[in-house]
Structures are given as structure tokens and as C-alpha cells.
């Protein structure tokens, strides 16, 4: 059986732009530890399935506030010494309907723990861990705005030890 390329026939350009902008705002919300930015792009509920990349993050459905509180907590991305950069590569639309779009992104999630420094502009990295994944995001249309309603990454490979980077506060 040959690979069948999915070309959505009902994807309007404004929806494409909205999805790209929403995904970037989501990544920036993680990296800048910005709860308001995350709140703007996450739906009232978000289903998270990280089982393919982490034994510590269970498959779970969160309301918006609980998701932001957990993922920006000091134990995860809110760790004050943890710097992250989530880079999104090309996207692949897996399905499109008037109320739901499923997109898979190529993603590099870079994580670094910086050492305390007396110089505010000089951040030296102590430990690093980079994860290469395919990140599947499910979007739902709420009040004419696209919101992220699901996350499901699958790991390609990882360099470094994420637990070592996040571990110390």
C-alpha cells in the first residue's frame, strides 16, 4: 500500500494562519512561562497524552487552569532554572473539519538548566536535554477562534537526560 498524501479540500487560508499563530503562541507560552499566553490559546479542556515520550506525565484531560498550573509548576516548565525552546518545523494536516483540525508538527524541544550567575545577561548552561518529536495537536473552534484541545507527542529521539535538567530547583 502506497503512502496517501492528505490534502484538505476545506481548509481556508485564514484557518491555516490561525492554526500556525496559535501553535507558535502555545510554544512561546511554554518557553516564556507565560500563563496568559497559554490561556489565550488553550480550549476550556485539553487532552494530554505524553505516554510516548514520558513515563512521568500521564494521559489526562485537564481544564485550562489545571493544565497551566501543572505545566508551569516548579516541577515542570516553571522551574526557575529551566530554560526551554520549542521549535516547530513543518506541519502536516492530518484531518480538517469545520470544527476540528488535527495537525502534526516536527518539533525540537530544547531544555537547559542554567547556573546562577552574578551577571544578569550571562546565562551559562549546566545541563541540557533536547527532545525530537512529532507533536500532534488537536484544535477545536470555539466562538470562531481555534483553540488547542489535545497534545500527543511521539518521541523520535532525545539527547541528554531530561530528568537531570528539570531535577534541581
TrEMBL record:
Gene3D superfamilies reported in the protein's UniProt record: 3.10.450.50
Q: Does the keyword Lyase apply?
A: yes
Keyword Nuclease (UniProt): no
UniProt cross-references to Pfam families, sorted A to Z: Scytalone_dh
Q: Which InterPro entries match?
A: NTF2-like_dom_sf, Scytalone_dh
Domain Scytalone dehydratase-like stretches: 10-166
**SUPFAM superfamilies per record:** NTF2-like
Q: Name one GO molecular function term.
A: lyase activity
Q: Which key words tag this protein in UniProt?
A: Lyase
Q: Which family does it belong to?
A: Belongs to the scytalone dehydratase family.
Q: What is this protein called?
A: NTF2-like protein
Query: Which species is the source of this protein?
Result: Aspergillus eucalypticola (strain CBS 122712 / IBT 29274)
Amino acid at each position: 500500500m502506497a503512502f496517501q498524501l492528505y490534502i484538505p479540500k476545506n481548509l481556508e487560508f485564514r484557518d491555516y494562519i490561525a492554526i500556525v499563530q496559535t501553535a507558535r503562541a502555545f510554544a512561546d507560552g511554554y518557553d516564556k512561562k507565560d500563563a496568559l499566553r497559554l490561556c489565550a490559546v488553550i480550549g476550556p479542556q485539553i487532552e494530554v497524552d505524553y505516554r510516548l515520550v514520558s513515563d512521568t506525565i500521564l494521559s489526562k484531560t485537564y481544564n485550562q487552569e489545571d493544565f497551566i498550573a501543572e505545566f508551569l509548576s516548579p516541577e515542570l516548565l516553571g522551574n526557575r532554572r529551566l530554560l526551554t525552546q520549542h521549535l516547530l518545523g513543518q506541519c502536516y494536516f492530518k484531518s480538517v473539519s469545520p470544527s476540528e483540525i488535527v495537525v502534526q508538527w516536527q518539533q525540537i524541544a530544547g531544555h537547559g538548566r542554567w547556573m546562577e550567575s552574578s551577571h544578569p545577561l550571562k546565562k551559562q548552561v549546566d545541563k541540557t536535554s533536547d527532545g525530537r518529536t512529532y507533536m500532534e495537536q488537536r484544535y477545536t473552534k470555539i466562538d470562531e477562534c481555534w483553540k488547542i484541545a489535545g497534545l500527543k507527542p511521539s518521541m523520535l529521539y532525545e539527547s541528554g537526560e531530561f530528568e537531570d535538567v528539570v531535577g534541581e530547583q
